[in-house]
Amino acid sequence: MGTVKVLSIGILLLFAIVLLAFIAAGVLVPAEQSFTNSVEITAPADKVWQVLTDRSRFPEWQTNLSKVEVVDDRNWMEFPKDAPEPLRFTLAKDDRPSAMSFAYKMGDYFAGEWNGCVTPTPTGVRLETVDSYATKGWVTKILMYIFFDFDKFAKDWNSKLKQRVETVN
């Protein structure tokens, strides 16, 4: 067998393996995921909501944001430093002092919801968050699964929120 023929067969096999891996990932990787996290915050609930509704100041404590554009009291856009376009947020539900929900989306391929609920504790509140998202298209869900740890991101976000709430006057 000639070198060109062996090389061609090898390239075809490699292409077939990559194609099968892509198809398997497209079938096996879930398009929707949800993560529940909680954090103890040494502050009253109204202070938590104060920080969460002061959206124009998010880049001061969420260092992955380059800026936030507030459209009105229910809508805003966050510009992550490493994203191709902004996340568009809408206040979905405001049940203060106990809960609040935001819906968000990035283009036509990614959408989600953040739900936060506070419960009083002896030293402040416990904030429980449920972050859910859904992707459209195999490529998006595979890339999200490989390159973005949403649960880690949510835990980090909650940790920064805790720090901000506990230090802001």
Read across the widest sheet, the strand sequence of neighbours is 1-7-6-5-4-3-2
What overall geometry do the principal axes of the alpha carbons give? elongated
Mean pLDDT: 90
Helix content: 25-40%
Number of strands: 7
How many domains? 2
CATH class of the largest domain: Alpha Beta
Give the name of the CATH superfamily of the largest domain: START domain
Describe the biggest sheet?
A: 7 strands, antiparallel
Total count of helical runs of at least 4 residues: 5
Reported by name, the CATH topology of the largest domain is Alpha-D-Glucose-1,6-Bisphosphate, Chain A, domain 4
Compute the CA-based radius of gyration.
21 Å
3D structure, described in words:
By secondary structure, this protein is α+β, with helices and mostly antiparallel strands. It is 40% helix and 37% strand. The longest helix is centred in the N-terminal third of the chain and has 26 residues, at 3-28. The N and C termini lie far apart (77 Å).
